[in-house]
Amino acid sequence: EGRLGRDFLKRIKRDGYIDVYSRKGNFQYRVSEESLMDRLSTDMRAACRLIDENCRVLTVHGSKDQIVPVTDALEFEKNITNHRLRIIEGADHEFTLHQAELATVILDFIRECRDRGMTSRL
Fold this sequence. Notes:
Layout: H1 8-15, E1 17-21, E2 27-32, H2 33-40, H3 44-49, E3 57-62, H4 70-79, E4 83-88, H5 99-116
Parallel strand pairs: 3-4
Antiparallel strand pairs: 1-2
């Protein structure tokens, strides 16, 4: 079914939007036809090139993510100058069983950036 659920295009056409909920049933965000088309038409390579080379970027991706393919994270790695990619083995899209490892990766990245100073590259 994916992130937007079954028959999401039909529902957007019918209602003008769909609401996306977490697995626990909590509202996360609303997708309109306009926002979906905008997102689908975004040239991610061009968007990546707009990121300042001094801006540090961390991408953390789960190897078992069935919503966003790992290849998307690999594309970020190729197209963002000051980028660090960490793939967490066995993690799904929400890092369900890997919260501690996710937190460690993020905190280590923040500490490393802090210790290197605001303008240095990774």
